[in-house]
Design brief:
- The chain has a domain of 28 residues.
- It is built from three helices and no strands.
- The longest helix has 12 residues.
- It starts with 14 loop residues before the first helix and ends with a helix.
Length: 67
Amino acid sequence: MIEILDMRDVKDATPEELEELRRKGFLPKTGSKRISGKPITPYERTRAQVAATGNRWAMENFYATHS
């Protein structure tokens, strides 16, 4: 069984604590994301967020209101 002794938000972590979490593999390495040359439009960003929910009716509503 795992016992949690201290719980803090990542935004409150010090740079040293963040580096320790990256070293242990709990956080991705900084700068490891590939940035495409094409910026994402607000439409594409919203569509991706709605699709990520997996809600079929939300997707139908999104397509109905944005087409």
